[in-house]
Amino acid sequence: MTVTGAVIVVRGLGHHNMASDEELRPEWRGWLCIAGSILAFIFLVMYTGLLPATFAVVFISELGDKTMTVKAAAVVALIMCVVAVVVFWWLLNVQIPILGGGG
Length: 103
Hints:
- By secondary structure, this protein is mostly helical.
- The chain contains five helices and no strands.
- It is about 70% helix and about 0% strand.
- The radius of gyration is 19 Å and the shape is extended.
- Keywords: Membrane, Transmembrane, Transmembrane helix.
- InterPro entries: DUF1468.
- This is Tripartite tricarboxylate transporter TctB family protein.
């Protein structure tokens, strides 16, 4: 990793990139969606379980991307629900109910 970092630094030394004001503006939509998704996960995992919380965190985060469609965000969220169940619930035995958090 150190060598890769050094190569990136050396390659960047010869370039003088000047970002425009448009490129420097904060992406509020992305920030708000990511922060909102984390809050939704915290609330939902306690009261509804792993699947709804995982779907919500991924779906809301994906909507922070201006190019993401609702359908594509839903598909990614569904795939991540399967991954979350397999990794966290089945392989790691994390003690979070899949449905119905019981909070």
